[in-house]
Amino acid sequence: MLRLLKVTGDSLSPLYKEGDYVVIATLPFFLRRLRQGDIIVFHHGLYGTLIKIVDRLSPESDEIYIVGASENSLDSRRLGAINRQAIKGKVIWHIAK
Predict the structure, then answer these.
(1) Among candidates 10, 3, 14, which has minimal Cα distance to 88?
(2) Domain extent at residue 25
(3) CATH number for the domain that contains residue 83
(4) Whether 23 contacts 93, CB under 8 Å
(5) pTM over cut 0.85
(6) Mean per-residue pLDDT for 29-55?
(7) How many structural domains are present in the chain?
(8) Could you count the other beta carbons within 10 Å of the beta carbon of residue 66?
(9) What angle (nearest 5°) sits at the alpha carbon of residue 15, between those of residues 10 and 21?
(10) How far is it, in rounded angstroms, from Cα 41 to Cα 58?
């Protein structure tokens, strides 16, 4: 399944800017094949829906470490690892405004 989402905020600026759109794949096939550098959309209990870059995957568990585009980004340096079940989808297409 595919979903179209509008980027809000500057989480991955300048790569993804506010007002851009992304198409995410939500099928388990895409989510099982995550790799370093993939862009994912996930849900966080305090911050809602976030878009980040996969930094690394923990081989022992379903934990994924994510980074933003800038050193001040809200990412695994402050949030810790995210659980694979929190992932809403993997970005497969970026539509710049």
Answers:
(1) 3
(2) 2-95
(3) 2.10.109.10
(4) yes
(5) yes
(6) 92
(7) 1
(8) 26
(9) 75
(10) 18
